[in-house]
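Reviewers of the previous submission asked for a worked example of the structure-prediction workflow described in the proposal, so we include one complete record here. The input consisted solely of the amino acid sequence. No template or homolog information was supplied to the procedure at any stage.
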Amino acid sequence: MSDPAARRIAPGQVAFVAAATELARDARARLVARYGDCPFEQASAIVPLGGDGFMLETLHRVLGHVVPVYGMNCGSVGFLMNPFSEDRLIERLDAAQEVLLHPLRMHAITATGSVEEALALNEVSLLRQLHQTAKIRITIDGTVRLAELACDGVLVSTPAGSTAYNLSAHGPIVPLSANLLPLTPISAFRPRRWRGALLPATAEVVFEILEPEKRPVAAVADSHEVRDVVSVAVSEDRTVGASVLFDPDQGLSERIIAEQFTV
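From that input alone, the workflow returned the following structure tokens.
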């Protein structure tokens, strides 16, 4: 994490990007008129205007670069975003707290033998493609931990993504500092009582699809989908990251903790 005191961003050094909604586009026009604009590739800070989905799209664009991203909510939930305001934006950027997010890397092999890789800041999920239950073998660091999981799917989540699809699938919320990855089944049929596991961040998880012709499965890394997979390996990639900025006292760690007490 960088020191906020060392961050000095001037008007004209900020790139404003907007989701494809009237609200976000109008907000961008007002901010550009007030603070100027900068090409995405030359900016000292990126300000996405939209919801969490658009924020994820923007973070994928900056993965591996040092430019910080300060989202402002022009969507619905806005878990990864800061409150929208046109006032004091440069001061907010300079005072913001930084979180470095590392993605999961998905290595998928399809039934035709093709190989696809993708990064996920939220989760990598495996989902049945047809009406029949998927059957999946789960190996962790070379050891088979579950010989056969009959399910609608299964996912591995980052800590930052543990409040997203993982939580909807009844997986645990994980603090950023925990260095853990939730492994969560989606509508498990057998073993019926298996509720998932918490894995060390260094773990490599391999999913093998059983009966892939009869029970085809798709793998999804955030929004990147690969269909008809036969094997999917997932591990955290700490060689790349995305820098996300939050207003003081509204950081991502605090939000993840607070989410556990939401009723």
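The chain has two domains: 4-101+241-259, 104-236. We consider this example representative of the routine output the project will generate in years two and three.
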